[in-house]
Design brief:
By secondary structure, this protein is mainly alpha-helical. The protein contains five helices and two strands; from the N terminus they run H-E-E-H-H-H-H. A two-stranded antiparallel sheet has the order 1-2.
Length: about 110
């Protein structure tokens, strides 16, 4: 009979790790640190639920913010209309909407309207 019992949680000696050898010597790796721009982009592009005509729908948060600005502008809010026009000018200038650029290019007064 062998001097070492083989069984549950006791692999054969020949298949065990040799001294000084590990299967993952570098470890798991460090977690990527996100910048403020990446966090903002992730938060604004995350879908949120809303109700439209009695039905539950999902859309990115940035879209819901722009819709709210549009409805406020139609109701007569001058600040919301100015903000909406700034966002529109930015989109025409840079092509695709990028919430990171929009928020950094807006002034503090514009950010209060949002």
């Amino acid at each position: 009979m062998p001097s070492y019992d083989v069984g549950y949680k006791k692999p054969p000696r020949h298949s065990q790790f040799k001294p000084g050898n590990r299967c993952n010597p570098k470890g798991r790796g460090k977690r990527k640190v996100e910048t403020e721009a990446e966090i903002l982009k992730r938060v604004l592009n995350f879908p949120a639920e809303f109700r439209h005509r009695g039905k539950s729908k999902r859309a990115p948060r940035i879209e819901l913010m722009i819709r709210r600005l549009g409805s406020a502008a139609v109701k007569g809010d001058v600040g919301a209309a100015a903000m909406l026009l700034k966002i529109r000018a930015h989109c025409e200038k840079y092509g695709d909407i990028n919430p990171t650029i929009i928020t950094h290019s807006l002034s503090k007064e514009d950010m209060r309207v949002l």
